[in-house]
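protein under study:
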Amino acid sequence: MSKEKKHARNVASEIDEETLKSVSDVPSFWKVIKREFRVDRLATICLVLLVIIFTTVIVGSFVLDQEEVMKISLRNKYKAPGKDFILGTDIGGRSIAGQLIIGGRNSILIGFAVTILTSGIGMVVGLIVGFYGGKIDNMIMRVCDFISILPTTLLIITFVVVIPNYTIWHFIFIMTIFYWVGMTRLVRSKALSENRRDYVNASRIMGTSDLKIMYGGILPNISSIIIVDLILGFAGNIGLETGLSFLGFGLPPSTPSLGTLVSYARTPGAMSNKLWLWLPASLLILIMMLCINYVGQAVRRASDAKQRLG
């Protein structure tokens, strides 16, 4: 035996099995995300800011009483920020700080609930049509095409006007009806691609059930794309709620909303002389949108090996 072979054998014997495993292991998606955030400091700052904002808003909304905050007190009308009211009051003498916290909670709750519901429906329907194809695929896709061409915003406004005793849960339900289509199309396209892969064919030959192949095989392989879409969809749903509330077709007037606070800017003289009415809510929306979008971009990069920074 030559010296080189002996040397190679000695080196190989020195490397233990655990070291070999650690080198050959493929990092999980969560480990890749952690590495991406470690490299991208701005994304980390955005994530920390989001956690602080969400914690403050949610904990604060439990402490505050919505009925007390929305009680009209004309003696405190348009009070500037001071000792009594940290962020001032609106035309009804209601605390802007209280409305900001409860309105932020409502916007986050709506965005989160709509995102979870639409993504849940989209994942189930998209996996089924992408896995089975054929007539089921054609039928569901024609329904999606029909919903896609509808004037969604106008229909939401119509439902808001027509429904009596309108609440936040009605709003979530109406938005869910129209916004599950996007996730369905995304999951369907990925499921169609995965459905042709060898591991799916091998599972079929081995007699694995369709449900196990869909939810145990295909879904984990497309989960990174779904997570990215979830985060970006969350920001979009918050923006949609605040936009409709700004126009007066979102949450009821008795329910605080960030969009309603921003709409105070349309009050005569408020744009230049009463900044406390609309500026805090505008800044909160801006910071949340930027942070969610930047965190979503970091997760998107983590899901694509070509774009990763870490």
Q: What stands out?
A: The two ends are 43 Å apart (CA to CA). Residues 96-132 form the longest helix (37 residues). The chain is about 75% helix and 0% strand. The chain has a mean pLDDT of 85.
